[in-house]
Each structure stands twice: as C-alpha cells, then as structure tokens.
Amino acid sequence: MTARLPLRLIEVPYDSGHRDARMGSGPLALARAGAAARLRERGHTVRERVVEAASRWRSETTTAFELQRAVAAEAVAARAAGQFPLLLAGNCNSTVGMLAGGGLVWFDAHGDFNTPETSPTGFLDGQALAMAVGRCWTAAVPEVVPVAERNVVLVGARSLDPAEESALRGSDVAWLPPDQARDVGRLSTVLTELAARVDAVHVHIDLDVYDPSLAPANSFAAPGGLLADDVRRILVGIAERTRITSATLASYDPRCDRGSRIRDTALDVLVLLAELGT
User: Fold this and answer.
1) If 0-12 CB within 10 Å is exposed, 13-18 middle and 19+ buried, where does residue 232 land?
2) Does this UniProt record's set of keywords contain Methyltransferase (predicted)?
3) Residues with Cβ < 8 Å from 71, sequence gap 6 or more?
4) Residues 179-183: contacts with CB within 8 Å, 24+ apart?
5) Is the dihedral of CA 218, 89, 53, 60 positive or negative?
C-alpha cells in the first residue's frame, strides 16, 4: 500500500474542564472505536498523543486555555516532524491551539461567535470561533496568531443567539448556512475566493453540523443540518482548491448517539481528512 502522510492524532478528552464527561468522552470513544487503526489500514503512520490538564485546579476557562497551549505545542511539534496534525477534541475551543495562520473552514451547527459581552450564558465554547479570529481572549494563548476574518468560512451554522448573529453578519466571515453550503455555485465561489487569499487551511468539524436525523452528535444538536455526503463534497471541494494542513473533529457526546451512527460517520470523515491532508 502506498505510504501516506504521517499523522499525529491529538486527543483532548475534556468538556468545560471535566475529563471524559459529556463531549469530553468523545475523543476517547473514537480512539477505542479504532480511529488510529482505521488510519493505519489506509497506510498512514500514526502517532497518538493524549493531552492532559496538568494543573490540579480545574475550571472551564483555566483548563480550556491550559489545553489550548498544550495543543499548540503538539501542533508545532507535529509540523516540525513533517506530520499532519489531527485533533479529536471535546470542546471546539481546543482548535485555537491548532491554528497557524492561513485560512479556516469551520463546520458547526452554531456560530460560536459570542464574546463575553454578548453571550447570554457565558459558555466559553460558544465563543470558540470568536477566539480564533481574535475577538476575545487574545492574551490567553499568546502562541496563537488569530486568523483574519476574511480568511474564515463558517459552514452549516443555523442556531445562533441574536447578538451573536448580528456580530457575525457584521464581520468579514463568509457564512454558509446549510442551504448555501449545498448550493454548488455559491460554495464554489466562496471556496475559490478563499483559495485566492490563502495557500493552506485548517478544517474544524463540530460533529453537530450533521443533521440530527442521522443521530444527535451532542445535546446542542439543531435540526436542518448537513448530511454526510454534503460534508464529504465540501471537504473535497476545499482540497481541490487549497491545501488542508490540519484538522479537528470536536463535540461528540456518545450518550446522544443512536446506534453509533455519528461515531461511524466521524471515523469515516477522519479518514477522509487524512487522505486529503498535505
């Protein structure tokens, strides 16, 4: 079998500071289901790394930023070793540690574009994309350079808070709700414009971007999402136009899954990302 790009599979089994609970149980569930074995079957060399919080004090914010810094160190080490970094995360905000400039394609049922000033709940993970573009918490992980908003495409978001939606519409982020993401012409235009500005992207997939008719990925799942074929087609379209140099799968809560359908979908898309990665 033809050798594939070496991979570093980074697992962060935390949700809001809690280890192996709720969505934090997702990375380890995917690992136990054979994530690394599937990748090796495709000819990849895989190095698995489990990122742990070292601090004895655990809280949503303190632990999240500690984990982001640890993820950043793993991502830097992976790139220095010529490896493709793949992140399995409980929370979306762990992706911030993966960013290394270039572009960002963010699949999610939600905008994740709240800030501490706009969030109705204060939920940190609802601020993940806002962190990625430097709208909040910029001093928390100084190793990470925010992505320029015009180099971000948000795919599949359909459940947003009012102030969050207003901020998103006033931003330079290209937002493709599910109907626009399925529109071949609209999608092609947005991805082609992104590829003209950047030569590499990080792909972030919150698994609740999938329609819950497949199975709810987590307790935040919202109706009207994308199907597996939609996500596959969009990922191939990205890779046809620019390089995918790292990726994240996030927010899988096995308790919400029916018949392991989201688990199996996640493993399929993990293999696809590894195949498309450069």
Assistant:
1) middle
2) no
3) 10, 12, 51, 87, 89, 94, 95, 96, 97, 98
4) 181/155, 181/156, 181/226, 181/230, 181/234, 182/226, 182/230
5) negative
CA-derived radius of gyration, the chain: 17
- Show me where the domains of the chain are located: 7-276
* Per-residue confidence (pLDDT) for residue 150, from 0 to 100: 98
Q: In angstroms, how far is CA 123 from the centroid of its own chain?
A: 17
Tokens of 86: 């793949």
CB atoms within 10 A of CB 66: 22
pTM: 0.97
Residue 227, CA distances (Å) to 43, 142, 161, 249 in order: 27, 36, 23, 16
Mean pLDDT by 10 residues, the chain (278 residues): 77 97 98 98 96 92 96 96 97 96 96 97 97 94 91 98 98 98 98 98 98 96 98 98 98 97 98 96
